[in-house]
Amino acid sequence: MTPIYPGSVNAAGQQATLGVLGGGQLGRMFVHAAQRLGYFTAVLEPDAQSPAGLVSHHHIQTGYDDPAGLAQLAQLCQAITTEFENVPAQALQTLAQTRPVAPGGAVVGIAQNRIEEKAHFAACADVSGVTCAPYAVLETPAQVRAVQDERAELLPGILKTARLGYDGKGQVRVRTAADLAAAWAELGGVACVLEKMLPLTAECSVLVARGWDGQVVSFAPQRNVHVNGILAVTHAYEGNMPPALATRAREAAVAIAQHLGYVGVLCVEFFVVDDGTEHGGLVVNEMAPRPHNSGHYTIDACDASQFDLQVHAMAGLPLPQPRQHSAAIMLNLLGDVWFDASGQLREPDWHSVLSLPGTHLHLYGKVQARAGRKMGHLTITGPDVVRVKAVAHRAADLLGLPGLDAI
Ligand code: ATP
Ligand code: MG
Question: Which CA distances in Å does 93 have to 99, 106, 176, 315?
């Protein structure tokens, strides 16, 4: 991979341009990072008013698998990445015929299918040192019926569609075999995995960036708190989890990325489970082949963000080890924040929030607030965790955010 330097002009007279499939908030923050370095950017996204399309030099407004749109993206860009969980892996493979694409369609395809993803985790368990929750693949009515007799230990469990799930969607919690049959029907009888419900004491995730040449860097694990299956709070500071577990999670995530031959930014999510040991056991949950909501704090708290590393990795630039310079807590801002207790639309009290020290507001340019919709996030940085927590509490109070007890 010949590096694509920002500000350079190629033999065809084109400005160095980086492309992204998908126009959501992750694409927007990628575009910001690429532009700050001096790249031109192109976004392929069908929605006319997308967070990333609105801030990019070029916006190709077609479907993700539209041949003409993909050809135009390849023509404009010297390298291409993705930001969207469910972008067709085939589209990435098509682009890869003519341009460097990171991550590649094959690994994105694995991450998009829980069955393949779990098989990958199992295949590299020896090197990563972690396994996933006990599970069964359910693709036929006979397999669903067999759980009661053959895999009863998986109940109570969580039934998850193999494909197209996110933010807790495509998941049903089941206690009994009857629940399971009903839930499988409710999910449309599609391929699923049934996972044993584990006694979680915490959740964390690790961001890894890997270059074309195999160079790997990673961030320390961040501890995540979910509310209703959606990330609510990320804790990113020294002491956010037991150091021994943090080291294991970080090493496991790097091993998983290496085993995949991954290029780009990968987020690996872990459960910490109560297994009777002092700090609990580590179980790998899932991976996202892109920057992740739990890594947004890196924009304001580190000397290189997850989006900077995404740019560096895809463009073949060096990957220096990032350094976190501030303690940080990130609060996700869902559309709920824009409604008062009686369901009336309201403007959040930004004036008070922005008067607090160390607050960094990121809104994604989404016009319409809806309950559960990710509208933005607020990162609070400071010199130490005590001060960061105090401001996070105050900000969460002002915005009426849930999950406060967990801060
Ligand atoms: P994401 O938004 O991260 O893509 P998702 O919809 O893909 O989420 P998961 O990460 O599989 O879903 O699950 C969402 C949340 O549900 C987890 O973060 C965890 O809190 C809970 N959960 C999932 N699986 C289990 C399990 N086996 N045992 C206990 N809790 C679980
Ligand atoms: Mg998840």
Answer: 10, 8, 41, 18
